[in-house]
Amino acid sequence: MNKRIIGLTGGIATGKSTVANYLASAYNLPILDADIYARDAVSVGSPILSAIAQRYGSEILLPDGNLNRQKLGEIIFHRPEERHWVESLIHPYVGDRFLQEIAESSAPTIVLVIPLLFEANMTNLVTEIWVVYCSESQQMQRLIQRNHLSEEQAQARILSQMSIQEKRTFADYVLDNSYSVELLLKHVDEALKANSSK
Ligand SMILES: CC(C)(COP(=O)(O)OP(=O)(O)OC[C@H]1O[C@@H](n2cnc3c(N)ncnc32)[C@H](O)[C@@H]1O)[C@@H](O)C(=O)NCCC(=O)NCCS
Ligand SMILES: Nc1ncnc2c1ncn2[C@@H]1O[C@H](COP(=O)(O)OP(=O)(O)OP(=O)(O)O)[C@@H](O)[C@H]1O
């Protein structure tokens, strides 16, 4: 039987983790997360972290040798050419990790959480696409509140991604998170019951 591989995406802070946590706890589905692999890619001693430190100087590292994520964020969310350079190192690593984990899994349904599913051309990894959607003003408000960012910092992150309006046009399922979490999770139940495939 072919695996069902759900690509869960959306804009930053639209609700992907809320959906993924529910799929794990209520349905016991395995969750693979691009943000976690992207963190692994820059672990201490990794070739990618060395390349980053060579380009931006050792000030991009914390005293313990870990990446100063806030500093790199300030660079890449304001300078698209630097973002593309960092992505060209990290995205192939993330793609390879997904392929490896999918191949090793015997689960019939797997969930891939990929914030940059479209931007990083990873749609070929999945058999269906779910987009978690909320309005841009809600997205902004939730991001500022959760990450304690200024409006300008939040805006820079949102503008580094394809707009949520555009993302929703590529979805097999749009999970509307404009209202309560309870309602969002009802949409998740429905999407999981339906068996759409590309
Ligand atoms: C710049 C970094 C160090 C900031 O780290 P920080 O801990 O503040 O954020 P975190 O990694 O948890 O990401 C939070 C969210 O930011 C957004 N985001 C991250 N990278 C990018 C990017 N290159 N372009 C647009 N949005 C991005 C995503 O929605 C992600 O879910 C980090 O995001 C990073 O290394 N980004 C480059 C790698 C990448 O593209 N990762 C995305 C997953 S493939
Ligand atoms: N329906 C909702 N109403 C109010 N707040 C919500 C709702 N859904 C999620 N949130 C809150 O919005 C924030 C973003 O949600 P979540 O972390 O699930 O998004 P995400 O898409 O995984 O974010 P990221 O892209 O940064 O990983 C969280 O603080 C969460 O508690």
From TrEMBL:
EC number of the protein: 2.7.1.24
Domain of life: Bacteria
Keyword ATP-binding: yes
Keywords: ATP-binding, Coenzyme A biosynthesis, Cytoplasm, Kinase, Nucleotide-binding, Transferase
Catalytic activity, as annotated: 3'-dephospho-CoA + ATP = ADP + CoA + H(+)
Pfam families: CoaE (PF01121)
One GO CC annotation: cytoplasm
A GO term for molecular function: dephospho-CoA kinase activity
Binding site for ATP: 13-18
GO biological process terms, semicolon-separated: coenzyme A biosynthetic process
Pathway the protein contributes to: Cofactor biosynthesis; coenzyme A biosynthesis; CoA from (R)-pantothenate: step 5/5
Compartment list: Cytoplasm
NCBIfam families noted in UniProt: dephospho-CoA kinase
Function description: Catalyzes the phosphorylation of the 3'-hydroxyl group of dephosphocoenzyme A to form coenzyme A.
Family under the similarity heading: Belongs to the CoaE family.
Record's protein name: Dephospho-CoA kinase
Gene from which the chain derives: coaE
